[in-house]
Specification:
Elements lengths: L1 H30 L3 H39 L6 H18 L1 H13 L6 H25 L3 H18 L5 H10 L5 H14 L6 H5 L2 H5 L1 H13 L1
Helix pairs in contact: 1-2, 2-8, 3-5, 3-8, 4-5, 4-7, 5-8, 5-11, 6-11, 7-11
């Protein structure tokens, strides 16, 4: 455990160091913020480092192995509905817990002065992810070409962009970008690896990768459909 924590601490420090160093340079050369505000930033950065270390360690210890185990066990039940339903349910659940999605939903509610509620954005985004992760699992099971799925999905997305309300388009594309975060990515990828590992003639690399790009289309389409409804 200590070895893992030290490894994650090294990774996080290397990732956070450029931001902290740049902030220090800006503080000294240009910004000159009050000392109290800068100390708050420094303490917040330290807390973020601790939190990221624990989060990434938790992902490695628990989420990735469990995702692979679930993915490997589901095909043994001989139920396509169970595989797709479980994948969709997990996609919906992790989207609601994704920190980036929570921030976006709160900002959307604030920017729209409450006309778009936080819960509405969360649930619509989660539904979009759930549907497309379910389709992604069908792709893994049947070996569908990712090229055709991406082409069709992006085509539908671009067509909807032409008709959706301009106020919703930026929100839709932001929703697509924030869904594939620190929780969704390991769950989706590890589950796809688990499913493909027990299916004859499947390659975890070919079947398990590309799903995040596909899943991120779901929220974009879902938000733009919401715009058409509203």
């Amino acid at each position: 455990m200590l070895t893992l924590l030290r490894s994650k601490l090294d990774e996080v420090l290397r990732a956070v160091a450029p931001l902290v160093l740049l902030s220090i340079v800006l503080q000294i050369a240009f910004v000159d913020a009050p000392l109290g505000d800068f100390l708050i930033f420094a303490s917040g950065a330290a807390l973020a480092v601790v939190g990221m270390v624990l989060l990434f360690a938790g992902v490695d210890i628990g989420i990735l192995p469990m995702g692979r185990f679930i993915g490997a066990e589901l095909p043994k039940k001989n139920s396509l509905t169970l595989i797709v339903g479980t994948a969709a349910a997990l996609g919906f659940a992790v989207t609601l817990a994704e920190p980036d999605v929570l921030v976006l939903a709160e900002q959307a509610e604030s920017a729209s002065t409450g006309r778009l509620s936080r819960e509405l954005i969360l649930y619509v985004t989660g539904l979009g992810v759930a549907i497309f992760i379910g389709l992604a699992m069908l792709r893994v099971v049947f070996g569908w070409s990712i090229k055709y799925l991406l082409a069709g999905s992006y085509g539908a997305m671009l067509i909807l962009t032409l008709f959706a309300s301009p106020g919703f388009i930026p929100l839709a594309y932001d929703a697509g970008s924030v869904t594939t975060g620190v929780l969704t990515a390991p769950v989706v990828i590890s589950m796809a690896f688990g499913v493909s590992s027990v299916l004859a003639g499947r390659s975890p690399v070919a079947d398990g990768l590309g799903l995040l790009g596909f899943a991120s289309i779901g929220p974009i389409i879902a938000i733009m459909l919401l715009a058409l409804v509203l």
